[in-house]
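Comment thread on ticket #2218

A.B. wrote:
> Attaching the input chain for the structure job we discussed in standup.
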Amino acid sequence: MLEAGNNKELPVIPGKRYFTIGEVSELCGVKPHVLRYWEQEFPSLKPAKRRGNRRYYQRQDVILIRQIRSLLYEQGYTIGGARQKLAGNQAKDDVSKSKQIIRQMRIELEDILQVLRPKS
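C.D. wrote:
> Ran it. Output below, let me know if you need it in another format.
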């Protein structure tokens, strides 16, 4: 969803574990108050909160914010439309992961069956 061409102007995400709201603001090209608003509008965006209610974003949060930014600012989605698009992508990812797990389990069960079958 997040093509490199859409975000050439955005800096590379450093290899840190946690980012402050100011750092995320610079990395994603949106102001801190916009990030706080998006937290209310997008349920999947939940940064960790620590001392004094300070927000600490992880790498996947930064990637999600860049996706939201792309949907809203570059692709022209409304907040509701972007929320639905992200929810739809999550559902597709869940189905894909489930299919992978089922495929792997089937392979393992067939291997077990081969071991258990009497050799003739």
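A.B. wrote:
> Thanks. Noting for the ticket: The first strand starts at residue 48 and ends at 50.
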